[in-house]
Amino acid sequence: MTASEPKLILLFSGKRKSGKDYVTNLIQKRLSPKLCCILRLSAPLKEQYAQEHGLDYEQLLGAGQYKEQHRAEMISWGESKRHQDPGFFCRKVVCGAAQPVWIVSDCRRLSDLQWFWSEYPQQCVSVRVEASEQTRAQRGWRFTAGVDDAESECGLDQGVDFDWIIRNDGNGTLLDGQLEGLLALARERTQEHQCTQDSIKSNGQ
Ligand SMILES: Nc1ncnc2c1ncn2[C@@H]1O[C@H](COP(=O)(O)OP(=O)(O)OP(=O)(O)O)[C@@H](O)[C@H]1O
Ligand SMILES: C[C@@](O)(CCOP(=O)(O)O)CC(=O)O
Q: Which residues of the sequence carry a binding annotation for ATP (predicted)?
């Protein structure tokens, strides 16, 4: 069960080093963590995988080489869980999310999107982050067979008509401009929530 129904769910996907974490952190900063939380499907996966394999969870969450060394094995481990239950990690991340805007920062498979679409049909907006291979390489990406040509990276390459596409090739001003529409949508959807919070405050409740 979730703590409350969200007003908007931004379902982010994108290739390795396209900048999903960077862009979603920026949106959260602009909206404030009070209004917006970031849910990472890979967080419960990495936590359980780290526990079972004696690994460092914090390093698996980071953007460094440690995570990359373990990526292929984590992918197969996560896939075995998802095959048994496609909503396994989705249910875990929404548990306790209380803000009106949720950003799911790392959708990778159609089953991830389908779970949210079916549970929250009115609130979902799909967002793809794109960057050129050259930009991604500058950020540390190197093609890895078994990872970059597998479902984890290619599962949403076809068959999804994304609601928004954000190009993140490194120009801060261009990025800001592209986020305006999404931020406006989030503010519109949360206006009612903010008014309620303001009236609770002014009534001293
Ligand atoms: N617009 C940007 N300006 C400056 N640095 C950026 C920008 N976008 C991404 N980066 C940097 O590039 C690196 C990779 O970005 P990030 O971790 O957000 O990618 P990701 O898509 O989440 O990657 P992964 O799938 O490997 O977790 C990070 O060090 C991040 O700070
Ligand atoms: C194992 C996996 O969750 C790693 C994701 O790491 P990240 O989102 O790139 O930090 C990828 C997957 O689930 O296929």
A: 15-21, 139, 178
